[in-house]
Amino acid sequence: MSQSKTVVFAIKAVSNHIKRIFSKYPFTDNIEEITCMHYAVIHFIYNNRDKKIFQKDIESEYNIRGSTATGILKLMEQNGFIRRIPALQDARLKKIVLTNKALGIYCQAKSTMDEINEKILTGIPEDEVDSFFLTIEKILHNLQEFQ
Description:
The longest helix has 21 residues, at about 100-120. The chain has helices at about 5-25, 35-45, 55-60, 65-80, 100-120, 125-145; strands at about 80-85, 95-100. Helices cover about 65% and strands about 5% of the residues. The protein has six helices and two strands, in the order H-H-H-H-E-E-H-H. Helix 2 crosses helix 5 (about 100-120) and helix 3 (about 55-60) crosses helix 4 (about 65-80). It has a two-stranded antiparallel ribbon with strand order 1-2. The chain has one domain: Arc Repressor Mutant, subunit A. With about 150 residues, it is mainly alpha-helical.
């Protein structure tokens, strides 16, 4: 691999570009407090609505520290996107549930996110997309061993 190609910087550049695109879409116009990460958490909870979701699940899904997840979830709760409900078996555990406000945002944003995803994948054959996800899984595995 060329010395000028650095995976870390390439991933960061793609991430920054996606955040910029995300912030320009209409569903964020009247909702100044939503971020790409907030939407990601809403998306995760929505797609796992048949399960009980706790903070540790968010930490694991997005590979973030507890303090980071706490900050994200506190802000999401303040902004009315989630509620944290004490678990019956242990009041220290808080089940995270989406509010109607978050469900409305999810419904608005889903088609936009699908559109962004489709645009990102334009002209890329399915086998290359599959290879990309295999590579990402290997990168995540390598990073977990690196810590």
